[in-house]
Amino acid sequence: MVGTRAWDDRNEPSRTRAWADRAEPAPHRPLTGPKATRRELVGFATVGLLAYVVDLAVFTCLRGPAALGPLTAKALAFVAGCTVAYAGNALGTYRHTHPRGVRPYAVFFAVNSAGAAVQLLCLGISHYGLGFTSQRADTVSGAGIGMVLATVLRFWGTRTLVFRTEGRV
User: How far apart, in Å, are the Cα atoms of 167 and each of 32, 40, 136, 159, 160?
Assistant: First the structure.
């Protein structure tokens, strides 16, 4: 009777259930090593790019049609970008960590605020400390060097403090 449906109970010893004894899916084992880090970096960068686009779009809309002041518009755009970045990382890049509650978002927001502070610090040192006052120098220091340093800080903070996995502190 091979291939019949005589016993459909998984707890029953197998007698004529040859067709029903399909291989169970392998338990989920997260990737480790350079391949996992590369995948994590790509996911983090993709989500970060999307968050940047949202930040820029919200800022542009709030400054233009909504006619809000620059600091208010930037603060609201920053919150919108952080929310998109958190959701993208929680549901995508770091979905295997299963973040719960408000704490992970609060820590994520703090890490991103520290990244923004790094960008502003680079801009401030270059513009006011070193005297590089041209628009190009401001762009290189704030959006170039500052963005690179802030991204390194955000990646480290996100993977270490927000979406911790077993074996990584």
Answer: 11, 16, 43, 12, 11
CA distances from 108 to 99, 120, 157 (A): 11, 18, 8
pLDDT at 28 over 70: no
* Cα separation, 29 vs 26, whole angstroms: 8
- Cβ(114)–Cβ(68) below 8 Å: no
The sign one gets for the Cα dihedral 75, 81, 82, 84 is positive
| Helix locations, 89-145, DSSP H | 103-124, 135-138
Write the CA distances from 144 to 23, 77, 90, 135, 151, integer angstroms: 51, 20, 27, 12, 11
Q: At a CB cut-off of 8 Å and minimum separation 6, what does 73 contact?
A: 58, 59, 62, 63, 66
Full-model pTM: 0.69
Tokens describing residue 124:
């401030």
Average pLDDT, the chain: 81
For residue 56, the model assigns a pLDDT of: 87
Phi-psi region of 101 (alpha: psi -120 to 50; beta: other; left: phi over 0): left
